[in-house]
Amino acid sequence: MSSRKSTRQVPSPPAGRIIVDTSQWAFWVIQNQGGVAHPIHLHGHDFYLLGTAAATTFSDSKVSSLNFVNPPRRDVAMLQATGYLVLGFPTDNPGAWLMHCHIAWHVGEGLAVQFLERKDEIAGLMNLTAIQPACDNFDSWYSTSPYKKLDSGL
Ligand SMILES: [Cu+2]
Hints:
Elements: E1 25-31, E2 38-42, E3 47-53, E4 73-74, E5 76-79, E6 84-90, E7 95-101, H1 104-108, E8 112-117, H2 119-125, H3 128-144
Antiparallel strand pairs: 1-6, 2-5, 2-7, 3-4, 3-6, 7-8
């Protein structure tokens, strides 16, 4: 049996700051101020799980504890109660991506963010003319539907 394991070196952000490098990598620090854990899911990428901890606040002094050498690769990771989650991914997939808690009613309460990645490239990668008829059909149906959306729609 051959091994397909590879090692990925994630570039470290500059000391003392977590930044978004719009040309190559995005780094996110998600701080949970509540006492309930949340499974955080990202669309458009598998992300690298650089660090996580429960019952503590992320600060610049914790950057040195992050794992930038062959970190776990996930599309969901647990944001622990009153803790933090640090993730990173290469900005290699232009699009409008959603990152959210995977508990649907938490999304309805606002635990979601949508961001544009490489915005200027998106229109050139999509055929908006092909999408518009489906949007028009939905709008036509929804305007007369007795079933109105009550939540985020996720
Ligand atoms: Cu949640």
